[in-house]
Amino acid sequence: MSKEIAADFDSLIPEIPFTRRGFIVTALGAGFALAVQPVMAQTAIKTGSEGLTAGEIKVKVSDGEMAAYRAQPTSGNNFPVILVISEIFGVHEYIADVCRRLAKLGYMAIAPELFARYGDPRKLTNIQEILTTIVGKVADAQVMSDLDACVAWAKVSGGDTARLGITGFCWGGRIVWLYAAHNAQLKAAVAWYGRLAGEASELMPKQPTELAAALKAPVLGLYGGADQGIPLDTIWAMEDKLKAAGGKSMIHVYDDAPHAFHADYRPSYRKEAAEDGWKRMREWFKKNGV
User: Fold this and answer.
1) Is 182 annotated as catalytic?
2) For the segment 256-273, what is each residue's pLDDT rounded down to a tens digit?
3) Average pLDDT value for residue range 82-101
4) Is 259 in the active site?
5) So where are the chain's domains?
6) Is-catalytic flag, 170?
7) Catalytic residue among 150, 227, 262, 264, which?
């Protein structure tokens, strides 16, 4: 990166008063998170990196450098950009593969390790430990800032941030809704089974149901009717708020699908719903300028 580009890049980094020093996770590992073992090898999709530039990058954020996984076509430039937000397990093989799938479609896909300041969820075997010792310490405001930094990185690294999208799964699905209310530059968003309601806290002051009228980009929400963790009444409440807001955002529910129905490496995977959701996601991005 030239000094001129580096200077321009530095000017794009948002400044927020976080005092957390350093990052516990400074590099991404290979493979699936330990908490999701054993992996359903017969259904887990494996997308090769042929024709792609794919691997770890470092993104300058407000208090250091954050590791992220990036995949994009090897040839060409000015690719539309999609941020990919992980579940609570961090940027493990499934998320990297989603990035490669998107890169095969012509996108620059970036998946940041948003938990890096507090630990590596990929190395823990207990989901409750992941939630309490890592995920529960992450502030929404910090995540918004980190995602803005990823957009800044993309802008000076061959990405066309005028065509910016975001997608995310589970924990990342909730973040998608928040980011659509945060960044006016965003063109489109797709949230896979992200939590919509909950109690406010210092780290999570607002939930998606409170932000329906504040969305700056159209969001497609993909949800499972048999999801035990996201009550249907919260989905219908969000749908009502979206309709009242009068925008283009909408929700699609797969009646018999459980939580994490797109996670092809887990028993929750539902091939038909996952493939239909992926098709709807592609069409949503295309229709909305990504």
Assistant:
1) no
2) 999 999 999 999 999 999
3) 98
4) yes
5) 3-287
6) yes
7) 227
